[in-house]
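Encode chain A's predicted structure.
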Amino acid sequence: MAEISASAVMKLRNMSGQGMMDCKKALQEAEGDVEKAMEILRKKGLATLAKRAERETSNGLVVSKMTDGGKTGVLVSLCCETDFVAKSADFVAAAALLADYALLCPADEGTEALLQTAKDGKAFNDVLTEIVSKTGEKTLVGDYARFTLDGPGLITAYIHFNNKVGTMVQIDVSDPKVAQSEVVKRAMMDIAMHITASKPLALDKSGIDAKVIEKERAVYAEQVKNKPAEIVDRIVDGKMNKFFAENCLLEQPFVKDDSKTVSQVIAEAAKAAGGTATIKRFVRYEVG
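Encoded structure for chain A:
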């Protein structure tokens, strides 16, 4: 067996971020070849990932990042098994790096494209394998979305203090000055926080899956099946209107002032800034 020097172990440790003993064992197996040892450590990560494929990933972090002067924003989650690992320096660094990869990804959504995205000659899939090797836990990219302005507008992201819930929302505005207005920026942050707390299913009723609507109608119809036939539809329609008001962002009562809907809040803020604004889209991601 080749004699493994302390300097070689330190070099591999700095390259891989692995523990001293893991690095020494890999170097011994590779007969002192650092590159082969790196490959051994990588395979160890892949083996760990395969072994723990069925484990729950109910912890992790939600991260966001903006670029191009706020014209592009990403929201993405990195998931793991335990809160202990989610708070570790290696995992936090990997989550921050994931946001960088998300900004480079050729697709606006879809984790597979994100995993294959390369930065400095390394795909994020390789980064993922390395973090698995370091932590010994199943780790995966949970959700991913990227918004890019195609005209005057504003993208705002909010990450809750626990770093496990995050929201990204985009508005289109009538004039660039509206997006730069402090009153609109404050309203957008409030709306992002509202989304985090209120968990809307969609922007408006057109965004709710037809199967969900059908299911809700069936539930309400069952609840009033003993009512006179001529009023059943009216009662069900009323309950559906309440369902839409509770689950469609634009119709939801604003959490900071429930006398207004979310759509009224952004409209009033834009008017104060001398223009108009409409919410175009949003995403809300949560781990756990």
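Residues 209-247 form one domain.
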